[in-house]
Design brief:
The chain contains no helices and 15 strands. It is mostly beta strands. The protein is elongated.
Length: 200
Amino acid sequence: MSTDAAYLIDQIGVYSLEVSNTVGSNCSTLAFFTVSESENPTVTATVSSEDFADSHTIIATATGSGIYEFSLDQGPWQDSGTFTGVRPGERTVNVRDLNGCGITSFVVVVIDYPAYFTPNGDGYNDTWNIEALSDQMASKIYIFDRFGKLLKQIMPAGEGWDGTYNGQKMPTTDYWFLLYYNDLDTADPKQLRGHFTLKR
């Protein structure tokens, strides 16, 4: 029995609350409610697809005593921790407890290269690079024209290629690259050949 408006409950279980009018009539109301345990989750997330795959998938898991939902890069919340069609680069998985106990974030890196770039000076896609490898200071990228002529050597940590050679703008067409990098999981040296399009 208490006249306080608040009461501390420190055990899970089913409780009943009876509110009575002590002045005048002896009216009372009875309600039942459940107290469950909840906490911030422990979150892990991995990229289940291979580096430079056609499509990328992130799978996140949350462990703890709460009920959780997931969001990628501040996107909509969902019950599943699986995200498909993920863009390359640094991605953030957010997990929140439905009972309001907080949000936990986990950062993963999806490695891929841009299929094209548009060096027209508008501030969008003006240079080409593989930014997901920017932490690998030893990585190198060699860019060639369709005849195999070396046009530029860049580093993922640098500014990228602006679509010029000796100060001259290169035309709209496909260009090839050779990438030397280290596997993010094993640190083994790897190389990749591919191509992309310059659009003007």
